[in-house]
C-alpha cells in the first residue's frame, strides 16, 4: 500500500511546487510545526514565517514561507502563500536584506502583539537559514 500523497504549493504568480509522491510534509503552522503523513485528519491552518520540509522517497525539499494557509483533505495538501522561495536557490544577500528589514520593523513601537510575534518568527527563521 502506498504511503504517498499529493502536495501543491501555489503563490500569486504560479503553481510553485507540485508532486504526487510525497511521503511527509512539515509545515510551520501557527500552532507549531505540524507533520503531515498520508491519511492525516483534514485540517486548515495558517502558516507563520518558517520552513516547509517536503519528503519524497530519497529527496528532501525545503522552502521558506512568510505566511499562508495550509489545507489537507482527502490526501491532498494545498499550501497558498504570498511569499516563498526554495532554500537550494537562496541568495544570501536577499536573506540578509530581509533579515535587516525585519529587525528594523521590530523597532516600531506601534506594533501589536501578533505582528511582533510574526516578525520575531521571521527573524528567527531567516537567521537559521543565513547560518546554515
Describe the structure.
This protein is of the alpha+beta class. It folds into two domains: 5-86, Sandwich (ATP Synthase, domain 1), CATH 2.60.15.10; 90-131. It is 25% helix and 45% strand. It is built from two helices and ten strands. The chain starts with a strand and ends with a helix. The model has no long low-confidence stretch (mean pLDDT 91).
Element layout with pairings:
Layout: E1 5-11, E2 14-22, E3 24-29, E4 32-36, E5 43-47, E6 50-56, E7 59-65, E8 68-73, E9 76-80, E10 84-86, H1 92-105, H2 113-131
Helix pairs in contact: 1-2
What is the CATH topology of the largest domain? ATP Synthase, domain 1
Total number of helical segments?
2
Q: What fraction of the residues are assigned to beta strands by DSSP?
A: over 45%
Tell me, rounded to a whole number, the average pLDDT: 91
The geometry reads as: globular
Please give the number of β-strands: 10
Number of domains: 2
Assign the CATH class of the largest domain: Mainly Beta
Short description:
The protein is globular, with a radius of gyration of 15 Å. The chain folds into 2 domains: 5-86, F0F1 ATP synthase delta/epsilon subunit, N-terminal (ATP Synthase, domain 1), CATH 2.60.15; 90-131. With 132 residues, the protein is of the alpha+beta class.
Descriptors for this entry?
132 residues, alpha+beta, ATP Synthase, domain 1, 2 domains, five-stranded antiparallel sheet, 2 helices, 10 strands, 45% strand
Amino acid at each position: 500500500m502506498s504511503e504517498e500523497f499529493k502536495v501543491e504549493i501555489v503563490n500569486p504568480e504560479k503553481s510553485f511546487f507540485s508532486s504526487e509522491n510525497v511521503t511527509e510534509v512539515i509545515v510551520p503552522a501557527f500552532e507549531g510545526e505540524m507533520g503531515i503523513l498520508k491519511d492525516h485528519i483534514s485540517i486548515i491552518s495558517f502558516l507563520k514565517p518558517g520552513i516547509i520540509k517536503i519528503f519524497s522517497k530519497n529527496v528532501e525539499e525545503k522552502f521558506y514561507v512568510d505566511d499562508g494557509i495550509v489545507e489537507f483533505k482527502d490526501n491532498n495538501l494545498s499550501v497558498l502563500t504570498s511569499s516563498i522561495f526554495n532554500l537550494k536557490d537562496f541568495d544570501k544577500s536577499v536573506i540578509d536584506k530581509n533579515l535587516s528589514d525585519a529587525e528594523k520593523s521590530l523597532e516600531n513601537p506601534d506594533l501589536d502583539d501578533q505582528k511582533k510575534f510574526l516578525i520575531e518568527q521571521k527573524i528567527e527563521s531567516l537567521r537559521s537559514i543565513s547560518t546554515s
